[in-house]
Structure of N-(5'-phosphoribosyl)anthranilate isomerase:
Amino acid sequence: MTQVKVCGLMRSEDIEAVNAARPDYAGFVLEHPQSRHNVPLRNLRRLVAELNPEIARVGAFVNGPMEVIAGLLSEGVLGAAQLQGTENDEYIGRIRWMTSHGRIWQAIRVERLEDVARANASRADFVLLDVGLGGARPFDWSLLDAMERPFGLTGGLALENLPEALATNALLADVSDGVETDGLKDPEKIRAFVERVRAEPAR
Ligand SMILES: O=C(O)c1ccccc1NCC(=O)[C@H](O)[C@H](O)COP(=O)(O)O
């Protein structure tokens, strides 16, 4: 069954919406003040306490401080760290050396075959392919045929392009902006997105 992650949660209202819709993962952008989705660590702990414990927590980082990432994984505040910057296998190895808790995900922007090769070779436990479906340039789906490991899809997903995304056999659909209205998480869009992923027949 395809899993679903709703990312960019910031407010108690967002947590209420995901508690109702029950995605597999709830995502928080951390240690990245440049993002409008950034959540200060003190708020993270409060939001996590409000979250249904059956929904796993993922922190999205851009070249974030390794000690903070390892600490949040060790404490169990996060079940996975999603690396979204230029982190390499050495960086992943150093976090692994600091903690054996949690999982490490790597998001890789896919534009050409070399990006798919990088995703196949990544030392991360799981890879998210950022396909930028919301962008101006159409994504070449045939690149995904070269994937040799399970992957998730992220970047520009929304209810409208979800059927096409699910047809790739992705293990996970990750959404943030696609379930917002006027820059805020929209409980109805979250519900509809999660429901559509759940409705996909098992392959
Ligand atoms: O949302 C951000 O601004 C952000 C900043 C830094 C690292 C990660 C960030 N977001 C990650 C996500 O929200 C999702 O994993 C994904 O990229 C969602 O894509 P989209 O639906 O296109 O917003």
The chain has a mean pLDDT of 95. Residues 19 and 52 are 6 Å apart (CA to CA).
